[in-house]
Design goal:
Number of strands: 4
Strand content: 5-15%
Largest sheet: 2 strands, antiparallel
Strand order of the largest sheet: 1-4
Helix content: 25-40%
């Protein structure tokens, strides 16, 4: 379950966002030509909605239970390679 992972990352101080997920025939975003299946934010305002708040994270995953988890690494002082 992705919610569990999101909560674990948040507990470590890593702000998380909900990402679209793969579905039969493509991506949950519904764009037929999606080039980032399951790897792009659900919210267009992801830079301001990233959160470490467990209640906010639970609300987000209640709306999008199949969402993948994204991390805002810069805000957490991490670098992704």
């Amino acid at each position: 379950m992705m919610l569990k992972g999101a909560l674990e990352w948040a507990q470590r101080g890593i702000p998380v966002i909900a990402l679209h997920h793969p579905v039969e025939g493509g991506c949950s975003c519904g764009r037929p030509a999606c080039r980032s299946v399951g790897k792009h934010p659900i919210s267009a305002k992801w830079t301001t909605t990233a959160s470490t708040d467990p209640d906010e994270i639970r609300r987000t995953w209640a709306l999008h239970p199949e969402a993948n988890v994204g991390a805002c690494v810069g805000e957490a002082g991490l670098v992704a390679i």
